[in-house]
Amino acid sequence: MRISKPTLFFGLFVVISASFTQQILFYFFETFGKRQTATTLGIFFVLIGVAVIIYIFKQKIANLKKLCFCWLFILGLVLSWRMPIVAERIHILEYGLLGWLTLKDASKKYFSPKTIPFSLSIILVFSLMDEGFQFILPNRIADWRDVFINLIGGCWGMGLFLMSPKLMERKRT
């Protein structure tokens, strides 16, 4: 089992972006207002959500599986939207994508239950690197709660992958 270069680069981008994401977010807060920025991000994520749901319903998989996927997808979006800090909302989504990508890479040839702990460990490593990097940055705070939030996001993405039509194309062992 291994992860692909794009997944590795995305994980590193998530870690490195900790150095400038907050400044970009504050710029948007000052320019457009906190409420307007959060609303715009929300609309953007809703549009992505609608596109994903349309894509899933066009797939040739069981309707129950489609409904479960959509329920989990919408639940993750709603829970991330309820996070009090906008940056945490973004982290849920980033680590959700990282969870999807790591599990996809780990089960490239075939799916095995062993791929789940492997993917979780990759997400944990990136999350710890992310918080470690924030610990050494000025004006940033490392927090164990963020590691937990990142793991929740990663599990959300892994759960979505497990319900995805792409997994059905792979052999199970």
- Tell me the strand percentage band: under 5%
Please provide the count of β strands.
2
Termini separation: 14 Å
Rg: 17 Å
Largest sheet: 2 strands, parallel
Q: Low-confidence spans: pLDDT under 50, at least 5 residues?
A: none
**CA-based shape:** globular
How would you write the strand order of the largest sheet? Answer: 1-2
**What is the succession of H and E elements?**
HHHHHEHHHE
Helix content, binned percent: over 70%
Mean of the pLDDT scores? 87
Q: Give the helix/strand class.
A: mainly alpha
Tell me what you see in this structure.
This protein has 173 residues and is mainly alpha-helical. The chain has helices at residues 5-16, 21-32, 34-58, 63-81, 86-106, 115-136, 144-162, 165-168; strands at residues 110-111, 171-172. Strands 1-2 form a two-stranded parallel sheet. The chain has eight helices and two strands. The mean pLDDT is 87. The longest helix has 25 residues, at 34-58. The protein has one domain. The chain is 77% helix and 2% strand.
